[in-house]
Amino acid sequence: MMRFLGWVLRALVIVLVGMASMLTAMRFAIHGREVAVPKVVGMTLVQAEQSAINDGLLLSREDRFYSEKVPEGRVISQVPVAGTRVRRGWRVRVSESLGPQRVTIPDVVGQSDRAAELNLSRRGLTVGSVASIAVDQLPPDQVIAQSPPANAQGISTPKVYLLLSAPAPAQTEAAWIMPDLAGLKLADASAAVVAAGLKIGRVRLVTDPLAATEAPATPVNPKVPPPKLPPDSVIVRQTPPSGLKVTKDTTVSFDVIRPLQP
Questions:
Q1: Which residues contact 12 (CB under 8 A, 6 or more apart)?
Q2: What's this model's pTM, rounded to 2 decimal places?
Q3: Which of 29, 93, 186, 245 maximizes the CB count within 10 A of its CB?
Q4: Do 91 and 107 sit in the same domain of this protein?
Q5: How far apart are CA 67 and CA 149, in angstroms?
Q6: Average pLDDT over residues 103-114
């Protein structure tokens, strides 16, 4: 009997050792496929792509911004930030600098959406998100607000966001489609929200957009930049998400990251 128990104990020890070895091997295999995201801010797009490829990562340009400090054609920000550990094959999203602002923002208020688009494109600008709101005394598809405003200086993006008039719906509450504000600076996104007649909710600083870590939420007054969050903080998430139908009583909240220094 004792001999049998001894064999059983030895068998259990062998099984436990095997399981521990297997778990250790799995842990090494998982972490072995992880890499630290390189710093590509300040690089040209070609250099940044090669740096990402060298570490087994992908790189995509998500947006372009004006910058007085970062030369044209170089990376102005990246997500995830440098040093973040990710799996091989992960996509690093970057924004490209357009250099200093050299264009004048035209006044397109009162124009049709088509005329406004042509007016902007002639100056190398593009139409960003377009929202509509019901207005009784205006023809449909007429621009009633724009962000940035005409002749604005120090803008961050070549996109101009438009608010168009729409026929008043019969016996229904005025509603329009939520635009995509991801990638905008906090100040510009707040201005776009206010121009659309929506309300600013909480603004949350996230230290890593891909993780759950976050700093305490900070309320935002669109007329006064928050003291702890620079107005050039970059929007990475929004609530409600883009494409959702919203009304004038909708409150918009943001997750932002601090501006990255080259």
A1: none
A2: 0.47
A3: 186
A4: no
A5: 19
A6: 92
Residue 66 lies in a domain: yes
Tokens standing for 206? 């996230």
Residues 190 and 223 in one domain: yes
Measured distance CA(218)–CA(203) in Å, rounded: 5
Contacts of 65 (CB under 8 A, 6+ apart): 76, 77, 95, 96, 97, 98, 156, 157, 185
The dihedral of CA 59, 67, 72, 149: what is its sign?
positive
The pLDDT tens digits for 171-182 are: 455 667 787 787
Strand-pair category, 85-87 with 34-36:
antiparallel
Which domain does 250 fall in, by range? 178-262
CATH number of the domain that residue 148 is part of: 3.30.10.20
Which pLDDT band holds residue 222 (cuts at 50, 70, 90)?
A: very low
Which pLDDT does position 138 carry in this prediction? 81
* Contacts (Cβ under 8 Å, ≥6 apart) of 194: 200, 222
Q: Which residues contact 175 (CB under 8 A, 6 or more apart)?
A: 169, 245, 246, 247
